[in-house]
Amino acid sequence: MRIETLAVHAGRSIDPSSGAVTPPIHLSTTFERSKNGDYPLGFSYSREDNPNRRMLEECLGALEGGKEALVLSSGLAVLTAVLQGLEPGDHIMVPEDVYYGLRQVLHTVFAKWPLEVTYVDMTDLNAVRSAVRPTTRLIWVETPSNPLLKISDLAGIAEIARKANAISICDGTFTTPVVQQPFQYGIDMVTHSTTKYLGGHSDVVGGALITRFDNYLFERVRNAQRYGGAVPSPFDCWLILRGVSTLSCRMRAHLESASAIAVYLKGHPAVEHVYYPGLPDHSGHELASRQMAGFGGMLSFQVRGAREQAMAVAANLRLFTRATSLGGPHSFVEHRASIEGPDTKTPQNLLRLSIGLENAADLIADLDQALSRVTGGTGQLV
Ligand SMILES: *Cc1c(COP(=O)(O)O)cnc(C)c1O
What we know:
Blueprint: H1 3-9, H2 51-64, E1 68-72, H3 75-84, E2 91-95, H4 100-107, E3 116-120, H5 125-131, E4 136-142, H6 154-163, E5 167-171, H7 176-179, E6 189-193, E7 207-211, H8 216-226, H9 234-245, H10 247-266, E8 271-275, H11 285-291, E9 298-303, H12 307-316, E10 321-322, E11 332-334, H13 336-340, E12 350-354, H14 360-375
Parallel strand pairs: 2-3, 2-4, 4-5, 5-6, 10-11
Antiparallel strand pairs: 1-7, 6-7, 8-9, 9-12, 11-12
Helix pairs in contact: 1-2, 2-9, 3-8, 10-14, 12-14
Residues 74-76, 99, 101, 146, 171, 173-174, 193, 195-196, 205, 207 line the site of pyridoxal-5'-phosphate (PLP).
């Protein structure tokens, strides 16, 4: 079955007790044993498993074309559980522009753990190859990256990981399986912050890990979920599964609008540079065209001038909300350097946009008024 169909049907069935088409929310924390002491329906206690959680896991596993999925209470709970599954002294490779939350986890929660971390430019396969050590157990990849939308070669990285006897993990939050399916390129596991496009409505926090095959790291994340207890509530699972039903048409709308907005911004005299893999002059355009189905709903641009001009554009916007996060119905603008702190390499005049589900022409009109107020309508900075 194709992804649009799986997004609606996978993991669901008509509720046998009522005929309900939309699944009920199972709030019960505990489930009855049979007379011989077993659990005939497979559920015993809601931390260990819950019907709403299982539905969501089955659906996400099917969408990625994986063997199995686990859902946890947030995207970062998944990343933390993966790192906890490593052994003391293990070496991991992460992109130099990795999602800043993962960097935070490494430098706070794991500061005292003997984990060796190398930050690598993952767009350069030679750099990845030469960073491999005998102790490398995990190669983490994000493509497109955040916020510069750099593209890394999934097949190339998966092969390097396989030869090194390391597990490759792709953070699929920016793309969702509608836009990119890392397992097709040999990547071993995929993570998602389901808080973003999968939930899709900016109203629930969650995370997922999907695996292509059985492996020790996936089993350790399962232990972190069931016994470590970083579980999502049944209602959270229900909300995310509901979001997934409309995922494929939402993603189409997000990426069509993002393409139009990227082209508009590229032509504006007050814009210094646009980062969107759909633009033919983007350094990763050719690879993105092969590896992705569409170029996603996220883009960044540098305003001509400095931090001050970028902040002024963000302040002038009316339809774009100044907020972090992405993947919801509302369009967001964010000054990433402010969030990422003093050590950031993100340019100070860069704004990141999460393109929502509003009409693209309305969004362009909003950007136009915001940019022209900074340039005084002349295209020259005032
Ligand atoms: C938001 C995000 C996360 C973290 O997810 P939470 O649900 O906020 O914990 C991880 N990776 C990427 C790429 C994200 O955008």
